[in-house]
Every structure is written in C-alpha cells, then in structure tokens.
Amino acid sequence: MRDNFVDTLTSLMAEDERVILLTADLGFKIFDDLIERFPSRFINVGVAEQNMIGVATGLGLEGWTVFAYSIANFSTLRCLEQIRNDAAYHEVNVNIVASGGGFTYGSLGMSHHATEDLSIVRSLPGVTVVAPADGWESAEATRALSQRPGVGYLRIEKNVPINTRLAGEVFQIGKARVIRHGTDLTLVASGGIIAEALAAADALLQDGVTVRVISMHTLTPIDCAEIVKAAKDTKAILTIEENTISGGLGGAVAEVLAESGLGVRFKRIGMQNTYSAVVGDQEYLRNFYRLDAPAIRETALALLKN
Amino acid sequence: MLSGEKNTWTSTLDLAWRIRRHAVEMTHLGNSSHVGSVLSCADIVAVLYGAVLHYDPLDPNKPDRDRFVLSKGHSGAGLYAALAECGFFSRDVLKTHYQNGSILSGHVSHKGIPGVELSTGSLGHGLPVAAGMALSAKLKGSAHRVYALLSDGECDEGSNWEAILFAAHFGLDNLTAIVDYNKLQSLTTVADTINLEPFADKFRSFGWNVSEVDGHNHDELQAAFATGTEVPGKPHIVIAHTIKGRGVSFMENQVLWHYRNAQGSEYRDAIAALEKTRPV
C-alpha cells in the first residue's frame, strides 16, 4: 500500500512540476527513486512536524500541490493546530500522508499506534479523510487527493496482501465501494483491516449469513447514501476500523444512521476507548483487541441474534 | 471584495501615527485588547508598508509582490489599519473591528480581507508559513521577499525554532523575520518569564544575519531592511527594540494595556496625547 502511494506520487511529480513532497525525516529508502528524479522537490524538514505543516501551507499558498509525510501520530496530533489554523483554514492543497495507520508499527508501541487519528482529523472541517484498503485504493486516492482542492489526509499502512478491485471499477473520493454482496448483514470497514471483514464474511457464509462488505475508504465526505442503503437492505450494520470506536468510521456511520431515522441493529468494532498497552505485529494486535475475523464473526452473530 | 481609497499619508512617520490613532480608536470602539501590542509595532509596520514592501492594493495577489506575514496576530488592528491606509480597503471598515458580525477579528484573518497573507492568532505559526513562502520563491526563481513579524513572547514557541533551523539550512536569504522586542509578555517581563537573552547571539549561532535596531527609529529600520538582505544564503532577522504602548505615555511599558482599552477620560487623554505628536 505504501509502495503504491510512492509510485503514484512519483508519477504525479513527473506529470506536474507543482507537486512537491515534504517529509519530517521519515521514509528511509522508499523515496530514493523520487529523490533522484526530482531532487529539488523533495524537502526533508527534519524531525519538525509543526514546521512541516507550516512550510507546507506556505507552499500551498504559493500554488504548490504538497504532500507532507510522516508516521501517523506525528503528522497529525503533533501538529494538529497547524493543520487546522494554517492548512485547513487557508484551504491549501496540502495532503498529509500518515504512514503506519492503526497497528502497522505494532511492535514499536503505543507512541506509534495510530488509533485516534481518524477521529481527530475527521473533526476538522474541509479536510478530506481517506484510509485506503489496499494498494489500488492507495494509488487512486493519492492521485485523487492531488487533484482535489483543500487539505487531504491519507492514512496508509505497509503493504497489504489483498486486492479488492473489481473488474472495471473506478475509484472516486466519497463514493464507498461495495466489494461483496449480501442481504443479512453489512460490514463497513476503512483501511487494510477490510481483509478481516472479508475473512469474517467467508466464515459467516458457513453460518448461513450473507454479508455485504463495504470499503468506506473516504471518511470525509462520508457516503451517506451507501450507508442508508445498507440500513434498508440488510438487517444489521457493523463498522470495523483499526481506530478508536469514538468519532472515526463507527462514529461517522452512527451519525448517518441516527439522522436517517432508520432503526437498524448496529455495532462498532474498534479500539474500545483504550490505548494499547501490549505490542506485537498487526495480526497479533488485531486478535488481542478483538478486531480480527473471528471477533467480527462472533460480534455479528450476537448482533443478529438480538 | 472590499475596495480602498487613495493613500493620503505623507511619510512613514505619518503612516505610523495613523496606525496608532486607528488602533486606539478601534480598540476603544470594539472594547478589545492588545492596543499596547499594536502601538509597539506600529513603526515597524509603517516602515514596511510605507517604504519597503512592493505591493499593489488594486492587485493584492500579484505574484511578484512581497509577502508580509503578521505572526503576532494579536496586533491585527495595526495591520488592518496599515492596509486601509495603503488603499487595500476603506478606512470606514476599521470602525467595525472586533464587533458583532465584523470580518475584522481581534486576531488577524485573511477571510474576505485583501492584503492579509495569513490568518494568525495562535503564536508560532507565522514563521514556518513564511519559510514555506520563501522556499517557494527560491524554487520558482522569484525575486520577491517574505517578511514575518513576531512578538518576543512568541519566541517561546518551539515551532519558531524549527523554522529558524529550517530557514538557515535551506539558505532562505529572501526571508526577513522581525521580532518586536518590547520586553513584555502576557504576565510580566520577558526576562522574568522565559529569558531570550543572549537573543542576537542565538540567531547568529543558528546561521542568521542579525540586525539590531531601535524599533521606533524609521531610519534605522529602513537601513536594516535595506542592508540586512545582503548576506547571501542567510535569512535575516531584525531584532527591533521597542516600547510596548509606544506613543501614549500612560500605556508605555505596562502589561495592563495588553488587555485593557481606553474608555472615557482615558480615551480622550490617549487621543489628545496622540494629536499632540502628529507629524507635520
């Protein structure tokens, strides 16, 4: 997924000389080709995220299309006010790239676990928030954000093994993707954790439950129509995110459902308003915090039984 | 879009005086704070807008204009006054400052206001953005300069020091920062809060070209802006020694006037004091 971002960004820089990359001293080796080809448009600001977003805003005000890269918490929480007051308020084309979404850097510990970024960034008006599910969505989102006015937030993970693209499919910001059809239950996921949703859907089929799986790659603007459709077509909705259950995907879907007036069984799967306190790889932590396919299946069956 | 009137000021001293007069009146009408901060930097702003910056009020976004970022956004009244006096929008608009429904917020905003490059108010934001603008000019080969005006208390913010490192590393000699060094911050003196001294040495050791001036002396300010840009590869810092509340004797060197505005007899006294010092 990260490679798809880098490859697409490199293409964008070749196509448009106004595209520029800032990094807060991260991305060892991954930008080597890009640096060799566009040395003047690769700016390492050092370990200084507040300055990175300030500089990004200055460049954005001067007409550049900026990508600003760091690990998720550093490029968001550390410089949140710069994102709000500088980049977002001035409506510049600054795209914040958060590497290591969720538990990507699982063994590195809590500082590197991005488990609130989606909620916090989603609360900023005018910021387009995208958490791609796979390499294809990552590449498409990178290109789409570069062309979209205003601030973008791209939350990527390392390389994920799945490819969710359906034949002939076109990616569109703000347009959720139904990647599996079913009528009993809807699983809505953002990010690479959609692989767990797909595995859970397979298992649930054995239980006689047909599952609709939606990739809600864009949290802002949220695809209200697809959520409402799921509420009408299926008996229950489960949201799945590698993020706290408050204010992120689950919060966004809950807001749409509550205002739709449709009564539907609903549950949020994510970090249960807690910080991580153990380490392990992404798969281990998904299991530990009950975000993996067996936990999704169990939660789904309980929800449908109620 | 707001439209402005023709300049009527005759010198930078006259412009500075008008900024002060507006500031006292605007903070009085709006019952707003920070008049002392505006009086402190009125000369700096007047010299920049009256004699240094290249701009066109009829074409505020002209690509080759010089950029001015007011990082000490709480002095917004001073910038609004300068812009109105320089023809960016009507002086009448100033009277709405800080009041219900006004676009002239207490901390400077760019929304709907021609000539304001950046909205600020939270300290430590302006210099990083100015550095980005200066980097852009370098990358594009544009000759214009970028100026950022900071307060002294603002220099406590770590983001400024990130930008100070950055500007030197990237050789942004098209960037001039000015610190309005009036030696007072929110609660008490700078020295008793977080001491900045040896201030000039700090900038020198960070690789900046340093000018130190009397921030109320227009000749010194102009000379610094003219000559400080002559060191290739180094960003320029003007440390401007100032007096908070300058121009209204009972406001001078008082933290109180960071918060208070002149009402009643104080207002009449402040206006009378200013009228006596109007440049001829």
Task: Explain the layout of strands and helices.
The complex is a heterodimer of chains A (306) and B (280).
Chain A: H1 2-15, E1 19-23, H2 32-37, E2 42-44, H3 49-61, E3 65-71, H4 80-88, E4 94-99, H5 117-122, E5 127-130, H6 135-147, E6 151-156, E7 177-180, E8 185-189, H7 194-206, E9 211-215, E10 218-220, H8 224-233, E11 236-244, H9 249-260, E12 265-271, H10 282-288, H11 293-305
Helix pairs in contact in A: 1-6, 3-4, 7-11, 8-9
Chain B: H1 12-30, H2 35-52, E1 67-70, H3 76-85, H4 126-140, E2 146-151, H5 158-169, E3 175-181, H6 190-193, H7 199-205, E4 209-214, H8 218-227, E5 236-241, H9 264-276
Parallel strand pairs in B: 1-2, 2-3, 3-5, 4-5
Helix pairs in contact in B: 1-2, 1-3, 1-9, 2-3, 2-8, 4-5
Overview of this protein structure:
Chain A is of the alpha/beta class and 306 residues long. Chain A has helices spanning 2-15, 32-37, 49-61, 80-88, 117-122, 135-147, 194-206, 224-233, 249-260, 282-288, 293-305; strands at 19-23, 42-44, 65-71, 94-99, 127-130, 151-156, 177-180, 185-189, 211-215, 218-220, 236-244, 265-271. In chain A, the strands form 2 sheets. In chain A, strands 2-1-3-4-6-5-10 form a 7-stranded mixed β-sheet, with helices on both faces. A 5-stranded mixed β-sheet of chain A has the order 7-9-8-11-12, sandwiched between helices. In chain A, strand 5 (127-130), helix 6 and strand 6 (151-156) form a beta-alpha-beta unit. Chain A starts with a helix and ends with a helix. The mean pLDDT of chain A is 97. In chain B, helix 1 packs antiparallel against helix 9 (264-276). The mean pLDDT of chain B is 96. The two termini of chain B are 34 Å apart. Chain B has helices at 12-30, 35-52, 76-85, 126-140, 158-169, 190-193, 199-205, 218-227, 264-276, and strands at 67-70, 146-151, 175-181, 209-214, 236-241. The chains are: A alpha/beta (306), B alpha/beta (280). The A-B interface holds A 20, 40-41, 43, 45-46, 48, 50-51, 53-64, 81-82, 85-86, 89-90 and B 110, 117-122, 124-125, 127-137, 139-140, 158-159, 162-163, 165-166, 169-170.
